[in-house]
Amino acid sequence: xxxxxxxxxxxxxxxxxxxxxxxxxxxxxxxxxxxxxxxxxxxxxxxxxxxxxxxxxxxxxxxxxxxxxxxxxxxxxxxxxxxxxxxxxxxxxxxxxxxxxxxxxxxxxxxxxxxxxxxxxxxxxxxxxxxxxxxxxxxxxxxxxxxxxxxxxxxxxxxxxxxxxxxxxxxxxxxxxxxxxxxxxxxxxxxxxxxxxxxxxxxxxxxxxxxxxxxxxxxxxxxxxxxxxxxxxxxxxxxxxxxxxxxxxxxxxxxxxxxxxxxxxxxxxxxxxxxxxxxxxxxxxxxxxxxxxxxxxxxxxxxxxxxxxxxxxxxxxxxxxxxxxxxxxxxxxxxxxxxxxxxxxxxxxxxxxxxxxxxxxxxxxx
Length: 366
Ligand SMILES: [Zn+2]
Hints:
It is a single chain. This protein is α/β, with parallel strands linked by helices. The chain has three domains: 1-62, no CATH class; 107-314, Rossmann fold, CATH 3.40.50; 325-364, no CATH class. The protein has 14 helices and nine strands. Strands 4-3-5-6-7-8-9 form a seven-stranded mixed sheet, with helices on both faces. The protein has a two-stranded antiparallel sheet with strand order 1-2. Helix 7 (117-128) links the parallel strand 3 and strand 4. Helix 7 (117-128) crosses helix 12. The longest helix has 20 residues, at 270-289. It is globular. It starts with a strand and ends with a helix. Bound molecules: zinc ion (ZN). Zinc ion binds at residues 232-233, 235-236, 317-318, 321, 323, 325.
């Protein structure tokens, strides 16, 4: 009996014989005791049921979604979230039918900064993925250029853009909370466009993870995802760029002041906005779900149209930045050195340049 089609996901079990009937009983409506009783009515013993379910679980094809959680979900939400949870369960191999992912997303408050095409797409994607609270901080009046399939509609033109994003969120996720609460720090901030240094500084101070995303000049850029004090921050990236291009700080100041204005037409078409927002949302969910390392921590994912392929650019924490990520990286290196290298004394490692070099050498020697 084969489960799945694509060889990268499919698993096959042989020798099931009559016990194959157990599989048809695994439709999510029975707990283990009920499954045993139903199988016994078909003449299949308790031990066989236990053996088959263990085999299915070890093959990663059994989703044990808690019955109590299932009972709390309204029918509409269970149906809508089905594809989200099935994908997460399969991709992450959790074996819980997405229960852990559902709980994490339901406990998350995400604030999206910017109410243009990207902001509207990211906000609706997050809410549709089950993030329970998605607010949008943005200003301006919606124009026809803001209308996108995953964002604002024609009826929103001429209205407040942030309020229109909230309506777009509720169209796909009526249960989502959209009103902002300025007294509360979000669990994650998504900044669309060139980030405002004042906002970024406040997020770093508040230890709020934040993802930067922009799409203009027919280029989509997702990242960096800043985990304050742990991964490269916006300033780390700018310091690295300034080291390569001395004019960068002046260009950045003008870009930050001038982008996103209602009068300027951005070279960010519908498809680029959706593709960039989708990848940004996937990175945000990777962080929220805590199931894999987001590729945009210490990096950016970038596509330059008409190319189709996203490329990752690495942006390590900059030693001159005061965010603390560079020092945190050294601690990680030191831990790796301890784990990988035997008989090496690494106590008392500090962040001086010479010692940093020493740690790197220790890490390579195996
Ligand atoms: Zn930094």
